[in-house]
């Protein structure tokens, strides 16, 4: 323990007790490699692995994704540098609306009333697709604009490929999902969790499921935990891998085949942690419901159709804790 252990954190950061145990099951977290999809056998194998992962965990470590390691590392580097700036230099980007083009927030300012407790975190976000106005992006560090623009473009291209693979792994035409993603959106959120003197008393990000279609996350320090079989499982950073998880929209589109699973971020006493989460979704005007090809007599539609923009607004006005807005779309059985 470093010198931080002399300090106590303010009471508003104390989280509610959590009913779930921690389990060290990291070795069981699915790993999906998409490096050799041209070969028919490996393609089948990858699609099967993708389907199993989305059905059982809702999360997987993605290898062979094609995003150059150097670019990912640079993205991490500019993110750490940005968060190292003095508070007044970051606060100029302050926004209390995560649907803005660009913004910065500590969880003290953003929708404080929605949260059961303050979280040990600050974050910066920007739209990658369609791209935000570059003049709104940080000038410091100097490479921020270039690096975040390239990374955003690469991640968006990867998301489009994944969308095809998700389609195929559901037994649909490769283009089926993409056809429902008119006005696609990609937004990037840099999460910063400073070292905490009493890490077990607080939380970095409250348990939640992602409201978008799916998320592509980069991390270099552990802290991300996924609820699996009633226990929190830490997804340890795997060198070169990106963490991908199913969000609420993909759960709806797949008619519950794929699971949008609850996850959270815990903090540690030793070192700062940054995660870079890229959220891919349809446009706000897209109508999202179970894909007709996945609905039949044995498997009737589990959800009503809704506008993604309305779902996003409703979710953002709910307390960020536990149950997602998905239950409001459930068809009664
Ligand atoms: C998120 C998220 C987890 C992390 O930003 O939605 O779940 O590890 N982040 O920072
Ligand atoms: Ni999340």
From TrEMBL:
SUPFAM superfamilies, sorted: Clavaminate synthase-like
Alphabetized Pfam families for the sequence: 2OG-FeII_Oxy, DIOX_N
Record PROSITE patterns: FE2OG_OXY
Entry keyword annotation includes Metal-binding: yes
Domain Fe2OG dioxygenase as annotated: residue spans: 184-282
Gene Ontology terms for molecular function: metal ion binding; oxidoreductase activity
Keywords carried by this UniProt record: Iron, Metal-binding, Oxidoreductase
Keyword rRNA processing included in the entry's annotation: no
Recorded superkingdom: Eukaryota
Membrane-spanning parts: none
Family: Belongs to the iron/ascorbate-dependent oxidoreductase family.
Protein name per UniProt: 2-oxoglutarate-iron(II)-dependent oxygenase
Organism (species): Selaginella moellendorffii
Taxonomic placement: Eukaryota, Viridiplantae, Streptophyta, Embryophyta, Tracheophyta
């Amino acid at each position: 323990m470093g010198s931080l252990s002399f300090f106590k954190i303010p009471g508003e950061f104390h989280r509610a007790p959590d009913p779930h145990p921690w389990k060290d099951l990291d070795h069981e977290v699915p790993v999906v490699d998409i490096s050799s999809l041209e070969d028919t056998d490996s393609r089948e194998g990858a699609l099967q692995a993708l389907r199993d992962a989305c059905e059982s965990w809702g999360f997987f470590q993605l290898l062979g994704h094609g995003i150059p390691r150097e670019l990912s590392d640079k993205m991490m580097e500019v993110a750490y540098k940005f968060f190292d700036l003095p508070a007044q230099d970051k606060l100029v980007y302050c926004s209390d609306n995560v649907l803005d083009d660009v913004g910065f927030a500590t969880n003290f300012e953003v929708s404080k009333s929605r949260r059961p407790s303050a979280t040990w975190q600050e974050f910066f976000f920007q739209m990658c697709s369609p791209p935000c106005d570059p003049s709104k992006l940080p000038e410091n560090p100097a490479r921020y604009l270039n690096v975040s623009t390239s990374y955003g473009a690469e991640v968006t291209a990867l998301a489009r490929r994944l969308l095809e693979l998700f389609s195929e792994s559901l037994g649909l035409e490769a283009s089926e999902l993409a056809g429902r993603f008119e006005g696609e959106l990609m937004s990037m959120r840099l999460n910063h969790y400073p070292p905490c003197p009493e890490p077990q008393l607080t939380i970095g990000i409250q348990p939640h499921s992602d409201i978008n279609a799916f998320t592509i996350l980069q991390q270099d320090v552990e802290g991300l935990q996924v609820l699996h079989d009633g226990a929190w499982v830490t997804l340890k950073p795997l060198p070169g891998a990106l963490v991908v998880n199913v969000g609420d929209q993909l759960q709806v589109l797949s008619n519950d085949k794929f699971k949008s699973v609850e996850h959270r971020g815990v903090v540690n006493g030793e070192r700062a942690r940054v995660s870079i989460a890229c959220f891919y979704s349809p446009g706000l005007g897209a109508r999202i419901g179970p894909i007709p090809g996945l609905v039949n007599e044995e498997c009737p539609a589990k959800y009503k159709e809704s506008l993604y923009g309305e779902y996003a607004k409703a979710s953002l006005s709910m307390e960020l804790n536990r149950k997602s807005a998905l239950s409001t779309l459930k068809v009664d059985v």
